[in-house]
Amino acid sequence: MNKDLVIVKLGGSAITYKNKAFAPRKGVIETLAKEIKELLGEVSLVIVHGGGSFGHRVANQYSLDQGLRKSGQLIGVSKVRYRMTELSQMITGEMIKEGIPVFPLHPSSFVISSSCKIRLFFDKPVKAALEKGLVPLTFGDIILDKKKGISILSGDDLACRLAINLKALRLVYGTDVNGVYVNTPSGDKILAKKLRVSELSKVRFCSAGVDVTGGMRHKLKTASDAVKAGIKVLIGNITVPGVLSNMVLEKPDNYTVLIP
Ligand SMILES: Nc1ncnc2c1ncn2[C@@H]1O[C@H](COP(=O)(O)OP(=O)(O)O)[C@@H](O)[C@H]1O
Ligand SMILES: [Mg+2]
Questions:
Q1: How remote is the CA of residue 174 from the centroid of ligand 1, in Å?
Q2: 52 alpha carbon to ligand 2 midpoint, in Å?
Q3: CA atoms of 15 and 88, how far apart (whole Å)
Q4: Does residue 67 carry a pLDDT above 80?
Q5: % pLDDT > 70, the chain
Q6: No. of H helices and E strands in the chain?
Q7: pTM, whole model, 2 decimals?
Q8: Fewer CB within 10 Å of terminal CB in the chain, N or C?
């Protein structure tokens, strides 16, 4: 019997120290790899990770979110690719240590955008890897863009697109907060356990360091596409041991579920 498919995004805020250059949270990555190993007994997974202090920092330094405007940015493109590969390699290593048959795939080689919107999305290797029992691992990346030269493909968008294309049961966004906080009429902030897509316009956002792909605001906008496609989206704090597992299996814990 085929196992249910869940797409998991490991947020850069959880797997790196977002405000410290190129600093992985090794302990968190190790714990997540252990949880993923256990989860694979029950579900199929595609793992997507974010850039955190490996991607956003360099992208910001070279203004890569504005596309390719001058030749001086080219070396920045290489540096982002280098740093994302470095982070991905580290995660791959931790997963191998746990005996996970991980299969790293680089979006720069299978996605092309036009004006920052995904145009070509060659997902066949992801599907083929899954069919063979491998665990695809991919990440937010810098990709080639037909109009802007280059664009930044956010891990959030990539995870959402994979969830829709592969008809996943759930899409789990792991980050460094317990979920989405909403303001109550008295002005307090509370964690929304359930949040309707139609209520997203009421969410107030605060800034959280350098995130060239739009932070929580963009995550929710993207996530609503998955919800509209019938996929359950869960957002929670994967730096807390056990929360990733509980979201993937939809067991009770502190997290936000997005509903239609
Ligand atoms: N209303 C909100 N509810 C929860 N988090 C929010 C909200 N507004 C802004 N944030 C910020 O969004 C951050 C998560 O988004 P982001 O930094 O892009 O994470 P990731 O690296 O996981 O993609 C949190 O650290 C939090 O500070
Ligand atoms: Mg983000």
A1: 10
A2: 8
A3: 11
A4: yes
A5: 98
A6: 8, 14
A7: 0.97
A8: N
